[in-house]
Each structure stands twice: as structure tokens, then as C-alpha cells.
Design goal:
- The chain has 212 residues and is of the alpha+beta class.
- Helices cover 52% and strands 8% of the residues.
- It contains 10 helices and 4 strands.
- 33% of the residues are buried.
């Protein structure tokens, strides 16, 4: 039975899961969820994703939600195919990987998501952005990316010499901030720019960049 991703095709984290499926050469079926009509908040959807968020997956009856957990599951279950070691298996390498994941979770995602919320999500809701908060978010992200530039000046990817999920986790909201919204945060950070050019050129991401 083909793995099913329940979500909206343009939702950032739905596209992330689809990207990892492609990295691991895992066929998938997108089961469309009409998020703009509130389908993800219905009792039928919440039976499988109690927080009413997309995506969740159904892998032959195994239900899993939270995109990072889904990506880890796919990378580990299909470890022998596609892009190798998206989750490293050596204990020390895995520890460095988890460190890199924590970097993304704590030092990138909150600020990129916040910028997206102020500039896009609020607009969809008919609200104006909080310019003071937006400025604070951008300045914080700049400071974090300065540290990224130091790290990436010493190694090719966040967890070392090979690409991992820690790098790929940046793709959905990084694309929104750097490309869709046009925040020029890479020009003065050459190591980040090199890394970003690398990960965004992957065929697996280009295939789902617009929609899963």
C-alpha cells in the first residue's frame, strides 16, 4: 500500500514530507485536505491529527503526525534506498545530527515562521502585520544566520560533510523568507549562501517547491 500524505499541496510542511519521500525514493499519494475550508479542524480529521494541523501520514495503517517525526520515520524505514544517512546511524554522527536539528528548531524555524505569519498568514486573515515584531524577527534571524555562517565555514552541511534532514528542514520556510518574500539575508553570509544554493537545487525539492 502506497504511503499517503494527508494535507494541502502547497502547505510548507506537506511539501517537506513530500521532499523527503522523493529523497528516499518512496512513492506517495497526496490526499488533499481543504485547509482553506477548515477541513483540518473537523472531528474526522482530528481523529488522526488531534491538533488539527497538516500533514499526517498513513503508511499501511500506521498513522503518524508532526512533520519532523514523519521525516525521521521515512528516513529510517527506508534507510537502504535513496539518499543515504539522512539520519546518521553511527551514535556520534547521530548526536551531531540531533544537535543540528536543534539548531534549526531553536534558531531558524521560530523566526522564519514568525516572519511568514506576519507577512502572509495575517494577510490571509485580513490583518495587518505588526511591523515592530517583524523587525525584531528579521534582526534575530540575521544574528542567527551570522552563527550559521561560522558553522558552515567549517563544514559543508549543518551536521558535517553529508546532507541530513537537519538541512532539509530549512527548505519550506527558508524558501518563503529568502525567495517568496525577498529578504536579502544571504549576500553578506557567503557560507550560508553556498549551502542554501546547494540544498535548494536538489531535484527532490525542485519537484515539490510549488506543490507536493
Amino acid at each position: 500500500m502506497v504511503l499517503k500524505i494527508h494535507g494541502h499541496a502547497v502547505a510548507p510542511l506537506v511539501r517537506l514530507v513530500a521532499e523527503v519521500c522523493r529523497e528516499k525514493e518512496v512513492p506517495y499519494e497526496l490526499v488533499n485536505v481543504e485547509v482553506y475550508k477548515g477541513e483540518h479542524k473537523t472531528p474526522a480529521f482530528r481523529e488522526f491529527q488531534p491538533f488539527g494541523q497538516v500533514p499526517y501520514i498513513d503508511d499501511d495503517g500506521f498513522i503518524l503526525y508532526e512533520s519532523r517525526a514523519i521525516c525521521r520515520y521515512i528516513a529510517k524505514k527506508y534507510a537502504s534506498q535513496g539518499t543515504p544517512d539522512l539520519v546518521p546511524r553511527d551514535p556520534k554522527a547521530e548526536a551531531i545530527f540531533e544537535q543540528a536539528v536543534s539548531i534549526e528548531t531553536s534558531n531558524f524555524y521560530p523566526f522564519a515562521l514568525g516572519i511568514t505569519t506576519e507577512k502572509i498568514i495575517k494577510k490571509h486573515r485580513g490583518l495587518e502585520p505588526n511591523e515592530a515584531r517583524l523587525s525584531d524577527l528579521v534582526n534575530n534571524l540575521k544574528a542567527k544566520l551570522d552563527v550559521y555562517d561560522v558553522i558552515l565555514g567549517k563544514q559543508e552541511y549543518l551536521a558535517g560533510g553529508s546532507i541530513t534532514l537537519a538541512d532539509l528542514f530549512h527548505l519550506p520556510y527558508g524558501t518563503i523568507v529568502f525567495e517568496e518574500l525577498g529578504y536579502d539575508l544571504l549576500e553578506d553570509r557567503p557560507n550560508v549562501a553556498r549551502w542554501w544554493k546547494d540544498i535548494t537545487a536538489r531535484p527532490s525539492w525542485l519537484a515539490v517547491k510549488v506543490e507536493a
